[in-house]
Amino acid sequence: MSDDIRPSLGLRPVINVSGTMTSLGASIVVPEAIEAMTKILPQFVEINDLQRKASAVIARLTGGEAGFVTASCSAGITLAVAGAITGNNLLAIEKLPDVAPEKNEVLVQMGHVVSYGAPVDQSIRLGGGKVVLVGQATSTHRFHMEQAITDKTAAAVYVVSHHVVDYGLLNLKEFVEIAHAKGVPVIVDAASEYDLRIFLEQGADIVLYSGHKFLGGPTSGIVAGAKELVRHAFLQNMGVGRGMKVGKESIFGVMAALEAWETRDHEAVRERETGNLQLWKRTLEGRPGVTALIEPDPTNNPLDRMRVIISPQEAHITAWDMAAALRNGSPPIIVRDHEVEHHYFYLDPCNLHPGQETVVASRLAEEFDKARASNNIIATPIEDLSRHRFDGLLRWPD
Ligand SMILES: *Cc1c(COP(=O)(O)O)cnc(C)c1O
């Protein structure tokens, strides 16, 4: 693209086949949101009125009674938890996170305490919550949850993600049933989910989404659900929410992204993504030691990805060295590699500009050809990767 600003900034023109990653700038913001942000930036607005307008749009799309926009889904977890703890007690809101009211316990299944780039439990503690782990990593039974609820329980948090343990845990309906039987509100982290209605339909009291993931909005979080709980979360803007604030451009940008989501041709998007996956499959088919499988999204989003399984003996390279070669070459291709120790990575087709799919295909061919031509097997010990994982970050900004 000729209007690519990155080279003039000295930034690498990365192509993102890893998914919606904060570390890469999340997603391609839809034109409707860009236009909305441009229009509102030069104007003054009464922010709480703008948030009222956002509430109406969020309510319409999610089926919740109310909603607002905050800095991120992570912020949304903190604000929703804080709201469940403080209610509308303005003094308690100012005192957080140190002095939380007595009723501050927040239940979460152990198998849901994952990292989305930061720990789920930290977002709860930041809102004054005392995390109470329920069950074990791979098993939560009803009795675990029932007996974890006390008169100090303020809320229960449920995480929807490919990161969570996907067997042996309580599903959302059971989780809600047990919590509601004792009057405990349920907060659902659905940061990266397409379906804007299903979690509230299944009984969640508050649901949280990222504005910058599938919605293609500016960096932001969406809080939606029961009016009183949403209001209590909103009031945290006078407290811990201040450091998570969004400006007029993000609020209005999210409103536009939500409206664009309503009218987006989701089937056409899916068709284009399927075309990309098929192109990459054709590119990889027949190569020694390479298996390309098209697989559905683990949390049932309407999206497929390609799993590229690499046998180092035949491909002459490990999956992690291939991911590095793709990342370090030109242009850099960033694959989805968080399970790479199992000798595979994924290609995610949903964050590409038209034409980039063919660049990805030719880079794949180039790197697999190069590896195959190598006389020895390119195999960095996986332990070295783990040991040096944060070296670059710890030297930042150098
Ligand atoms: C991405 C993600 C988050 C964090 O969302 P942000 O909006 O980037 O803060 C939280 N939970 C899950 C499950 C996620 O996938």
Automatic annotation (TrEMBL):
Its cofactor is pyridoxal 5'-phosphate. SUPFAM superfamilies: PLP-dependent transferases. Pfam families: SelA. The keyword Signal does not apply. Coiled coil: none annotated. The keyword rRNA-binding does not apply. Keywords: Pyridoxal phosphate. This is Aminotransferase class V domain-containing protein. It comes from Pseudorhizobium pelagicum.
